């Protein structure tokens, strides 16, 4: 009987390990936009992002619920519902931003694409745009998502920025990295505020300006350079 219990325990541990590896790998093989981390005061960072191209659409209503129809339009575009019937690799994160009375939801296009190389969408609600290189101050967090939680995090972030006398412009970008089945404590969410000038966090500027980029992204760049 003891041997059976030990075997069951070992099987359970193995199952948990397999599930955890699957969940952790959900974004490991997805391209992320490259950036330099310039300053850190965990969970806050100042990052310098390269220029990126996005496909975006608009959705109305509650912030969290607006992600669903927005995601649907954009997913159709990258899965081939475009004038070239071309499939485009999924990247992370999915971006969301308040714009007037709506929400703008965006997918970042893989870095090797030029604006002219991306096909036009069949869906009139999907648009392509290039975002110039920019510095952002970022808050990273995990856990469950709801509109209330997101707005609470935004207010917490704004309070921190006021303490640090950081000047930001425009509404923030909300960044979501994981599929919905990811366990809450493994999820990665962020809020990105575009910087207007300097922002000095607690820690000194990093000496090396570490590159923040997924392994998949690194491999992708090697193939195209």
Q: What order do the helices and strands come in, and which of them pair?
A:
Elements: H1 2-24, E1 35-41, E2 44-49, E3 52-60, H2 63-78, E4 94-99, E5 102-108, E6 127-131, E7 134-141, H3 147-163, E8 173-176, E9 189-194, E10 210-212, H4 215-224
Antiparallel strand pairs: 1-2, 1-10, 2-7, 3-5, 3-6, 4-5, 4-8, 7-9, 8-9
Distance between the termini: 60 Å
What structural class do you assign from the helix and strand content? alpha+beta
Q: What coarse outline follows from CA principal-axis ratios?
A: globular
Number of helices: 4
For the largest beta-sheet, the strand count, sense and barrel status come to: 10 strands, antiparallel
Give the CATH class: Alpha Beta
């Amino acid at each position: 009987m003891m041997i059976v219990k030990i075997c069951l325990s070992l099987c359970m541990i193995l199952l948990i390990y397999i599930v955890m590896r699957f969940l952790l790998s959900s974004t490991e093989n997805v391209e992320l936009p490259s950036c330099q981390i310039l300053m850190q005061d965990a969970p806050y960072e100042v990052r310098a992002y390269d220029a990126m191209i996005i496909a975006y659409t608009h959705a109305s209503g509650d912030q969290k619920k607006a992600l669903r129809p927005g995601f649907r339009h954009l997913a159709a575009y990258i899965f081939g519902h475009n004038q070239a019937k071309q499939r485009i690799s999924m990247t992370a994160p999915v971006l969301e931003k308040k714009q007037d009375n709506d929400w703008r939801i965006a997918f970042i296009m893989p870095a090797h694409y030029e604006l002219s190389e991306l096909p036009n969408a069949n869906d009139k609600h999907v648009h392509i745009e290039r975002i110039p290189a920019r510095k952002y101050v970022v808050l990273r967090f995990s856990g469950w998502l709801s509109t209330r939680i997101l707005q609470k995090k935004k207010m917490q972030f704004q309070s921190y920025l006021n303490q640090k006398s950081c000047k930001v412009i425009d509404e923030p970008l909300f960044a979501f990295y994981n599929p919905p089945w990811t366990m809450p404590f493994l999820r990665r969410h962020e809020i990105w505020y575009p910087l207007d000038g300097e922002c000095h966090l607690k820690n000194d500027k990093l000496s090396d300006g570490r590159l923040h980029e997924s392994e998949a992204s690194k491999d992708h760049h090697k193939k195209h350079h």
